[in-house]
């Protein structure tokens, strides 16, 4: 893991760089498993097989009439929150939804990409990250030829705060399915899904990692749909859809494995993604209030 104190200058301001370029640790997940091979053919076969069975892979999202230009989603592998609808008024409160804000943010962040290390930018998304303390935050995701970036960007003052670079060849597995709390948890059911990208050796977090809410070397990242996807006009918008990112990520990692890990294959696991949270009123209030998203809150912006 990189030293969290490492900084880069982006658009005249300093951004913290959290680089993950070697394997880390976490417990192996049990569930229906696919071995994604080293060619596009293997990827396509695996996706075809996975879509034919299993509760996590067979859900179709409700259709919509309007989507962001040229980017329409075709399928859904993770569930949406039932009855969770964002009205136009609610959608417009997100600063990222204002005219050209997302495109501007992508352009402002492109300078973090190092062509000699990351290759070229393939696509970008705006998703929700669920951290190890069960807190949801708005994140820009970049996928390049050899890396995936998880970016914290302030849409209000248009500044990049920090980013995490994860080299694709160190990713061991991707879990896709519904979020679940332990049986003894009193947290309200999430009733939706996402993906969990891991680069680990099957070991647990250390005590310091688990109980530090600001820990930056957690060897996984958990992502779900952005709330804007629930606006009826954006139901088919790929930009806010974690399933679209999942499909692109698997395809690109497959190619990277061919080059950097010949003879090995990426493990894709279908099954519940457990969130180790038992009783956290902080997470409930934080998430229900949308404090991890940059919004106009009745004239107060944060």
TrEMBL record:
Transmembrane regions: none
Segments of this protein annotated with the region Disordered: 1-80
Domain of life: Eukaryota
Pfam families documented for this protein: hSac2
Compositional bias per record (Low complexity), positions renumbered to this chain: 49-80
InterPro entries listed in its UniProt record: hSac2, Inositol_phosphatase, TPRG1-like
Annotated family: Belongs to the TPRG1 family.
Protein's UniProt name: Tumor protein p63-regulated gene 1-like protein
Organism annotation: Aplysia californica (California sea hare)
Organism lineage string: Eukaryota, Metazoa, Spiralia, Lophotrochozoa, Mollusca
């Amino acid at each position: 893991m990189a030293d969290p104190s490492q900084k880069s200058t982006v658009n005249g301001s300093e951004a913290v760089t959290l680089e993950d370029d070697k394997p880390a640790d976490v417990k192996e997940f049990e569930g229906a498993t696919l071995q994604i091979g080293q060619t596009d053919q293997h990827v396509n076969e695996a996706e075809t097989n996975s879509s034919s069975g299993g509760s996590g892979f067979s859900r179709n999202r409700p259709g919509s009439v309007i989507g962001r230009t040229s980017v329409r989603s075709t399928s859904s592998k993770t569930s949406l929150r039932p009855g969770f609808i964002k009205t136009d008024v609610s959608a417009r409160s997100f600063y990222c939804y204002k005219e050209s804000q997302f495109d501007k943010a992508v352009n402002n962040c492109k300078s973090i990409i190092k062509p000699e290390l990351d290759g070229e930018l393939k696509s970008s998304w705006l998703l929700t990250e669920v951290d190890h303390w069960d807190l949801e935050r708005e994140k820009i995701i970049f996928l390049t030829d050899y890396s995936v970036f998880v970016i914290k960007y302030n849409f209000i003052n248009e500044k990049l705060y920090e980013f995490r670079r994860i080299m694709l060849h160190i990713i061991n597995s991707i879990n896709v399915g519904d979020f679940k709390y332990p049986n003894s948890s009193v947290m309200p059911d999430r009733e939706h899904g996402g993906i969990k990208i891991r680069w680990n050796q099957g070991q647990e977090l250390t005590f310091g990692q688990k109980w530090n809410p600001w820990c930056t070397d957690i060897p996984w990242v958990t992502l779900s749909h952005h709330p804007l996807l629930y606006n009826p006009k954006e139901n088919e918008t790929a930009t806010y859809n974690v399933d679209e990112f999942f499909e692109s990520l698997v395809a690109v990692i497959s190619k990277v494995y061919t080059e950097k890990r010949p003879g090995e294959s990426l493990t894709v696991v279908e099954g519940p993604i457990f969130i180790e949270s038992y009783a956290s009123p902080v997470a409930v209030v934080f998430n229900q209030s949308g404090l991890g998203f940059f919004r106009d809150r009745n004239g107060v912006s944060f």
